[in-house]
Amino acid sequence: MIRIAVASAMAGLCFATPVLAQSAPAGGGLLDKAVNQPGTSWNFYGEKYKAKATQAPGIPGDEAVHVAVAAKGANPWDIGATSATVKPVQANDTMLLAVYLRAPDAAEGQTIDLPIGIGEAAAPYGVLAQDVAKVGPSWKLYYAAGRAGRAYAPGAIRATVQLAGAKQVVELGPVFLLDMGAAQDPAKLPHN
To answer: What is the per-residue burial (b if ≥16 Cβ within 10 Å, else e) of 162-181?
Structure first.
């Protein structure tokens, strides 16, 4: 039930701002729980990659970021995409990451593994949630959910997609980091 609500809320978005700084329209419902700037509000780090805005018909906002990773890193996190919180998060709140991804060069039936999650933005880089997205050539919504062990100020946690696991091409669509509140059981949220 929550998976359908999340996908429906994400699919119903309409963006009109630039691809790397999109925001959700004002309104009610699930997107009121967003603690990041929903959309393709990605920031990148690392070396040996190229990122550019691209059209992505069929996903919210119809835009994505095309990332070409030139070489496998020593660690999967050597190149990554992040979206930081812009609102505070309370201790014990359940967090849900929902992100559109695809591997446009993958053959039908083939997938690439991308670690995704929610973590602290500074050392020691504690992890709130993590999962592996098995990303194929078609757009799909991927999830990671977990609980905040303490309160966090805006910018102290972020959504992450680790990109240095291989020489590869990945397209990152809109990212949504949702604070589902303390009463929500992370196990009952969508998962991959």
So the answer is: bbbbeebbbbbbbbbbbbbe
Tokens 């303390």 belong to 182
| Mean local confidence (pLDDT), 72-79 | 97
Decide: residue 185, CB within 10 A, 0-12 exposed, 13-18 middle, 19+ buried. exposed
Q: Are 168 and 107 in contact (CB under 8 A)?
A: no
Q: Which two tokens stand for residue 16?
A: 């009109």
pLDDT of amino acid 28: 57
Closest by CA position to 47, among listed 78, 76, 82, 68 = 78
Residues 6+ apart with CB under 8 A from 124: none
Q: Are 16 and 39 in contact (CB under 8 A)?
A: no
19 pLDDT higher than 90 = no
Q: Strand, helix or coil at 164?
A: coil
Q: Which residue in the block uniquely carries the two structure tokens 């979206």?
A: 83
Q: Please give the pLDDT value at position 20.
A: 28
Can you give the length of the chain in residues?
Answer: 192
CA angle 120, 95, 14 (to 5 degrees): 105
**What mean pLDDT is reported for the chain?**
88
d(CA 176, CA 153): 18
Phi, psi at residue 123, to the nearest 5°? Answer: -55, 135
CATH architecture of structural domain 2-186: Sandwich (2.60)
What are the sequence ranges of the domains in the chain? Answer: 2-186
